Amino acid sequence: MIIVKSKRDLKSLIGSWKAKGEEHGVVMTMGALHEGHLALVDAANKDNDRVIATIFINPRQFDNKADLETYPIDTNEDLRKLKASGVDAVYLPQVGEIYPVGYSTTVSVADMQDCLCGATRPGHMDGVTTVVSKLLIQTNPDRAYYGQKDFQQFLLIQRVARDLDLMVDVIGVPTIREEDNLALSSRNRRLNTEQRKIAPTLFKVESAIADLLIQGEAVDHVLEWGRNYILEAGFEKVDYLELRSEENLTLITDSSSKEERLSSRVFVAAWMGNIRLIDNLPISR
Ligand SMILES: Nc1ncnc2c1ncn2[C@@H]1O[C@H](COP(=O)(O)OP(=O)(O)OP(=O)(O)O)[C@@H](O)[C@H]1O
Ligand SMILES: CC(C)(CO)[C@@H](O)C(=O)[O-]
Ligand code: BAL
């Protein structure tokens, strides 16, 4: 496995793959890798001749200084896992490689931003679409893989690739979960024993909401029940618990058609202490 730290070395590595007619996929991460990331690598391994992973904690997407400062870092272990998963190369840029002095361009999608994490984490989505655009240009892949756990992020990246003609297939990989259905996340490492027990409540509520909607219960009613259940279980704050379309994140309400309700997703973000967890689930599974 080749480790690349500069965009110059990256360009010559990618050039050598292209010269041989080899297709490559990219898996972008912020490190502290778990089985969710490795599912993206597995998907990329299946579709491509070569796979490159990136590890870069992007300061521009953190709307909260403490969150950035406490973001888990475990690079040696990450490299071991990537090698064992059959990744060909890892790009490990320093901040200056991505944002040189004087850097002043933001990539911002005008649609699908004013809701969910776009609304509750000011600047976050622009930080993501900017860094992802840079990493897509630098790694120049045939395919790029993102987790559906971060569903709004996935839709925004698809839109960037389409709007900017980046000529890359943006592929969404289903969420990998623990045995108790907690969605894997690097931030789970920060949960204490008590918080870890409470965390699967998010999935429990999402799947109950899906069942209730399928049985014909009203949207407003089940969302209110779900919000109260999450707070009573021990979460301190719910940023959102909403039903939205999978295509464009349109809000689904009691006035939406039955078909719209059943083809939507339930999205949740909630806090325990200073840890914010997110999840989402399709209503018809
Ligand atoms: N449980 C999961 N299943 C599938 N993909 C995942 C999962 N968790 C993260 N990913 C995907 O891995 C990629 C890198 O994510 P990232 O490095 O931010 O990890 P993370 O676990 O989402 O961390 P965070 O704590 O920041 O949410 C993203 O495309 C993300 O959607
Ligand atoms: C896509 C990403 C690597 C961009 O920093 C990040 O938002 C993430 O890990 O989901
Ligand atoms: N996985 C999304 C990255 C973030 O929360 O900043």
From TrEMBL:
Query: Which UniProt keywords are present, listed alphabetically?
Result: ATP-binding, Cytoplasm, Ligase, Nucleotide-binding, Pantothenate biosynthesis
Residues reported in the UniProt entry to bind beta-alanine: 61
Q: Name any one Pfam family assigned in the record.
A: Pantoate_ligase
The enzyme's E.C. designation: 6.3.2.1
The reaction(s) this protein catalyses: (R)-pantoate + beta-alanine + ATP = (R)-pantothenate + AMP + diphosphate + H(+)
Question: Any miscellaneous information on file?
Answer: The reaction proceeds by a bi uni uni bi ping pong mechanism.
Give the family per the record. Belongs to the pantothenate synthetase family.
Subunit record text: Homodimer.
Q: What is this protein called?
A: Pantothenate synthetase
